[in-house]
Amino acid sequence: MKSPTQLPFADDRILLNLAAYWSARRNGQVLPQRSDIDPLDMPRRLLPHLALAEPAGGSDGAIRFRLVGTELVQRIGRDATGKTSADVMQGGYRAYVEGLYAAVIAKARPLYAETTRQWPKEGSSRVRRLLLPVGDGHGGVGYVLTAQSYSPGWTEQGETPRPRQHLIATEALEKGVLQATLRGLLGE
Q1: Which superkingdom heads the taxonomic lineage of this protein's source (predicted)?
Q2: In this structure, is the dihedral angle defined by the CA atoms of residues 94, 78, 143 and 14, taken in order, positive or negative?
Q3: Can you tell me whether residue 25 is helix, strand or coil?
Q4: What letter does residue 118 receive in the DSSP assignment?
């Protein structure tokens, strides 16, 4: 059972490693800047699960994907790199994803989200996302660095769990990263 101070993804090495990377790249700043983020410096196991996105610039809330990892490409069935959320998503799912990114951009805080998704071959799986703000060099959020992980066949007592999400204070995220480091949960 997790303690009230423990991160909701304390058991997820992919999300923990991204949180640790982001935290280290802040270098004492409120947010890391885009120049601080280099996918080649990240743990290799993280790269397939990453996305880097920015606001697309329109009034519709669309985001543009600058980087999409191979695991995400495989899951959605196409490479969304360079495309907007309007190009690759539709309906309620598009609104949900854009809402996650909008919250991170507006609040300049990390966000954890969890939902269940049906896949044609695997059935249901738990989808966990960690979205992290990256500075634009002018005091705002210009990008969102995201990792997603999947747990196949996940349901609670035969029912599909409701999506949940919440913003995480940077201090709480860093405390959780420290706890994970001390427990030996980070690394390749």
Answers
A1: Bacteria
A2: positive
A3: helix
A4: E
Q: What is the pTM of this model?
A: 0.88
**Residue that is written with structure tokens 């805080």 in the block:** 109
The mean pLDDT of 150-163, rounded to a whole number, is 61
Q: Note whether 87 and 80 are within 8 A (CB).
A: yes
The number of angstroms, rounded, from the C-alpha of 122 to the middle of its chain's C-alpha atoms is 22
Which amino acid is located at 2 in the chain?
K
The domains located in the chain, with CATH, are 45-169 (3.30.450.20)
Locate 78 and state its tokens: 């196409």
Note the pLDDT tens digit of each residue in 53-110: 999 987 788 999 999 999 999 887 889 999 999 999 889 889 999 999 999 999 999 9
Measure CA 88 to chain center: 18
Nearest to 125 by CA among 94, 96, 149, 101: 149
Banded pLDDT at 5 (limits 50, 70, 90): low
CA angle 144, 115, 34 (to 5 degrees): 10
| For range 116-131, the mean pLDDT | 76
